[in-house]
Amino acid sequence: MRRTGPTNYVWRKTIRLLRKYARQYKAPVWRYVAELLERPTRRRVVVNVSKINRYARPGEIVVVPGKVLGAGIIEKPVTVVAMAFSASAVEKIKATGGKVMHILDLLNENPRGSGVRIII
To answer: What's the CA gap between 83 and 90, in Å, rounded?
Structure first.
């Protein structure tokens, strides 16, 4: 069977820009995130806020190449960057003083990908 990749336009555009920034700024972190986003739907990354709370430090930028769900608690103010968020995850992250962003917004702010932690 031929591999086609995501059919969603926003996902395809995001993957294309991630690969472009990886080449242009010599940032292998974006190439890795693009590879994770290209996975089939059943193998995509889904992370709960409890896992972010466990592995992130306060004030850190955390990239989730997939969706963030609201199961568990988060006690640290972190910037969470992902493709999609559940409503409860957004509430919990903002309640602790954290920020919620889309991956494309982070690309514009930090094209080199420095100081980023990927949680899968």
So the answer is: 13
User: By three-state DSSP, how is residue 86 classified?
Assistant: coil
Torsion angle defined by CA atoms of residues 107, 109, 112 and 114, in that order, rounded to the nearest 10 degrees:
-110
C-alpha to C-alpha distance for 1 and 40, rounded to whole angstroms: 13
pLDDT tens-digit readout, 31-83:
999 999 999 889 999 999 999 999 999 999 999 999 999 999 999 999 999 99
**b/e code 21-33 from CB counts within 10 Å (16+ = b):** bbeeeebebbebb
Query: What pLDDT is stored for residue 1 in this prediction?
Result: 75
